[in-house]
Amino acid sequence: MSAILFDAPGPRARRRHLLMGIATVLGIIAVFGAVIWKLWSEDQFTAEKWEPFVTPNIVELLLEGLVSTLQAALIAIIGAVIFGLVFGAAKLSDHRVIRWPAWLVVEFFRAVPLLLLIIFIWAFQGSQAGVIMPLVLGLILYNGSVLAEVFRAGINAVPPGQAEAAYALGMRKSQVMTIVLIPQAVKIMLPAIISQCIVALKDTSLGYAIVAPGLTGAGREIWRTFENRLATALVLAAIYILLNLTLSWLAEKAQKRIGTKRIELVGGIVQGQPGGTSSNMGAL
After folding, report:
1. What is the pTM of this model?
2. Cα 231 to the chain's mean position, in Å?
3. Sign of torsion over alpha carbons 176, 179, 180, 183
4. Residue 201 within a domain
5. Is 258 exposed, middle or buried (0-12, 13-18, 19+ CB in 10 A)?
């Protein structure tokens, strides 16, 4: 296939690109080797640094932190999706009294750094009221504001003919939004929603700043006891990566399932209705 945006490289260019690629790979290997040697020379790979992670008490501590992290993430993700759906739809309202306050709330919480938001909520409620609520509420407000823009953009991405056909059938705006626009927009928005849910899961680590229970809180106790910051950081990073990959895998499965069900539903309706209704479904 011929290139469209650039000329195909000739023999000399291909050799130059090959040499540059080899040099880059060797450079990365050299840097990685230097880092490993430096850590080895500072005794970061000794058995004393890693042995705690096979100790039953430490494993139990990490599992407790994992459960707390998953609980906070689950509540935050559900709350953020609901918040985003409500405020995303409010930003599309025809009434200024609804649209402008929703715009102000979304833009404000999108602009505030999440860590500062969590600390402010924690300081505002008082240290005696607990630390889980400020973490979860901060995650909901910040990620929900981002998701509100995702929902708004996804709904606007649906072809306008879909809404026009629904209005022509006599539907109210609430019906057009819930029956026609949002179901079609979900497939468009799903990748962005998945990404934001992963961000919310990772951001639970910010609970460390207010001593909230979780993986980073458990890690703090481990490295304070055994002085193995690097080993603890690597273990926590591996756990977070595994959680994020699992969440991505589940979301992809859900996305495929939603797409398959939607195709089967539309196909069944079209085949089971008379020609006039079938044409209306095609318009929708």
Report:
1. 0.75
2. 26
3. positive
4. yes
5. middle
Q: Which domain holds residue 141?
A: 52-159+168-283
- 276: Cα within 13 Å, side-chain hemisphere: 1
Per-residue pLDDT reduced to its tens digit, 33-78 = 988 888 788 777 788 888 888 889 999 999 999 999 999 999 999 9
Residue 203, domain CATH: 1.10.3720.10
- Per DSSP, the three-state class of 9 is coil
CA separation (Å) from 215 to 4, 80, 170, 221? 49, 21, 53, 10
Residue entry with tokens 């599309």: 92
DSSP 145: H
CA nearest to 79, candidates 132, 158, 152: 132
Alpha carbons 254 and 246: distance in angstroms, whole number: 12
The number of domains in the chain is 1
Over residues 228-264, the pLDDT tens digits come to 888 898 899 999 999 988 888 887 787 777 666 555 5
**CB environment 182-197: b (16+ within 10 A), e (fewer):** bebbbeebbebbbebb
Q: Report CA dihedral (179, 184, 188, 193) to the nearest 10 degrees.
A: 30
81 contacts: CB under 8 Å, gap ≥ 6: 144, 147, 193
Q: What is the mean pLDDT of the chain?
A: 83
And the tokens for 161?
Answer: 């003919």
Q: Which two tokens stand for residue 101?
A: 């306050």
- Using CA of residue 144, residue 146, residue 147, residue 153, what is the dihedral sign? positive
